[in-house]
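Pipeline run #58 for the internal structure catalog. This entry was flagged by the ingest filter as a single-chain record with no existing model, so it goes straight to prediction. Upstream metadata was stripped on purpose; only the residue string is passed forward. Reviewer on rotation: M.T. Logging verbosity set to normal.
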Amino acid sequence: MSVPVALAQDLATRPELTTDVLVVFGVVAVALALFVTERLPIDVTAILLIVILVVLEPWTGVDPETGISGFANEATITVLAMLILSGGISRTGLVQELGRRMAAFAGDSLRRQLFATVAATAPVSGFLNNTPVVALLVPVVTDVANRGNTSPSKLLIPLSYASQIGGMLTLIGTSTNILASDISARLGSEYPELHRFSMFEFTRLGIVVTLVGSLYLIFVGHYLLPERVPPRADYLEEYDVGDYIADVAVVPGSPLVGETVGEATDRFGPEVDVVQVVRDADRSVAPRRSTHLAEGDVLVVRTNRDAIATLEDAEGVELVGRSDSTATLSPDGESGIVTELVVALDSQLIGERLEPESFREEFGAAVLGLRRHGALVGDRIVGRRLDVGDTLLIQASPDMLDRLSRRDGVIVAREPPRSEYRADKAPVAVAIMIGVVAIAALEIYPILITALAGVVAMVVTDVLDANELYDAVEWDIIFLLAGVIPLGVALEQSGAAALLAFAIVEVAEVLPTIAVLWLFYMLTALLTNVISNNASVVLLIPVAAAAAAGVGANPFAFVLAVTFAASTAFLGPIGYQTNLFVYGPGGYRFSDYARIGAPLQLLLSVVTVLGIALFWGV
């Protein structure tokens, strides 16, 4: 008989604190430290966990085959397939079109704008992975705010939170649900009440949670959010660009005449970046290194205060503009558009040092400013390592902005003027998704098989090109799943989960069962806000199931509480990836998330726990 079942039968028997348990607790501590501090990228941390668990096999019980089992796990492959399906939908422009139509009636009414944002986000997030949904809607919602003379700060956190609560409508709404379903099925041999979730297993509770959360966001939440970014904000003013921009003219006889932009940059030094070349009435935005200079050209450069002073003495150029130099940037014209670019989860920019010249060559855009964790990085931006959620102020031509909006790894915080999507494929993509959901819901085939079949159908019908399959996958999520799944196995096999469950039962034995259920919800929600949602599920579902058995409660109710709590990270920007996407464009501070999120977290904790008790019993 397994340790958790023994715990359920005899509360007086404490599971032993063995060397195996201590070692596994040590691995968990290392994992938590790495997740919280982000000293390593999340996918590297996941691989390291696999290595540690296998090296410590005598104590963890994780052999090489078990260590890599996460890569072949049903949950991992299903999430991978669902990400590709979501990518196919995004290529059709369907989500953006839905957002535009919902926003068309919003006008300048904040409440109607919030309704449009929530109504366009939550239902869609029940069937598409919410990460790409938010990435697609950030520019749509930002434009809604600008057109309605509303601060984007009032709409962007609600966008992220609506996607999270909407993800609880179906099994495929989030990767967390799919992983929780797999863990529940694995524990079914020990707890008869546990099983793999069906497609609409918890939809009735998800509808209640979504309605309550949506009403809060529409009627209450906006009062708690400050206007960090003014309505129709001037990006150049918000980023204090005028302090770091200068105009220099190429004077007659200058050694720069006939040279290239790259050679001029080498002369000026690494702190000076040429963002425009103005020649007569023509303006070259984010010029290539190979662009040749001529006498009379005006170079618009971005640099720091110290380097601007050195330009006054530079050979062959004359400083001709400082106080009003941002006027030459043409913030919203045919030659160039100024907007924000958010570094997404799977971006190639993560960990790279910001080199404006290299960025210009790679992305065809000039870097004008940088915002990190809501704070403006004013002076020196050259050489700073980029991270998820960093927001770059860029200027690019309309054509390049359109290309950037369709590029993986970055999120353009406004809609490009000439977006190109495969709109003619939208009906096909929707039909494929309906087929995937229907076949899985009818249990004709498992969701794994139907999702993979949907991927093939997307390619065969040209909704996706074959080479776009890999770009649609957020590989850090896949590696995270593969890394934490064997950690969950180690927790169960070593007895660590049983020991934790016993300790919780011992502390909470004077409380009613529903109070213990609420405590598990809150523990999961708090943990999710400092580590990933998937890691929270892996760590706490075995403990919750064992604790439920220990107090004679329904293990399935406890598993659901953990699952719902893990998908609602409302206290900060770190716990959920969609929160990071809106950090920069909303100009938020860390505390803004808790300001609106803490009451929502408490409200949904009560609604979810009472709903579980009503629908499934405790």
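catalog note: The first strand starts at residue 245 and ends at 250.
catalog note: Residues 1-12, 323-327 have pLDDT under 50 and may be disordered.
status: ready for reviewer M.T.
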